[in-house]
């Protein structure tokens, strides 16, 4: 029962962190009597602490949460790691910030904070490797999970090399690159969830088709919102609120995904418990996940 409650808190906690961030943005809006152009710009406002805390909390929960498949687990860990980069390295300071005197933050401190994240990741990875090796509990990963693992290693490795070789470029661009990669990984996990949901035991999950349709819709909407946000960032200059609207939609969809999962999986820990054994054994795609 304790494990089940933990999973409930993790799933629900994702949505609660979105509420926390949204409340901080709205509170800042009330005090400033205007909106910033992006969610990331709130790093430089009175919402600074909540922005960092909520994104880091989501990152920690994504890492702790055990995915329903090995591939999903790797992607969640990847997204969670990138969330810390999004939180620690601010977006480039905008020329126009509305409202009261903005917070002076970022700069060299952001790079030092990322180094703290790198150290924590290295220590945790070495400790994890040692414990699995010492206890003989290393698990063999299926093909897609192995590919996702190497993709994660390459991306994070390139990030560390860039941090060492080009810290100024890293400071200026890491936030945006990490945010896009983080949401791309999350969209991939939503697609995996949709696929797994459609293969669940009908007796254990009689509403599986409805949930599958919901996950597919969320994944499609998130992909559209992410693509639109990237394009708007590239083509729009100056003070334009189209970006914050799209970003808000993307974040709300993320919260909606975890809210739907909280409802669907309220009585179980992981989705693997809802899969019929015969399907899991015979499906090549399921085995590869």
From TrEMBL:
Keywords: Membrane, Transmembrane, Transmembrane helix. The chain crosses the membrane at residues 42-65, 74-93, 144-166, 172-196, 217-236, 242-260. This is Uncharacterized protein.
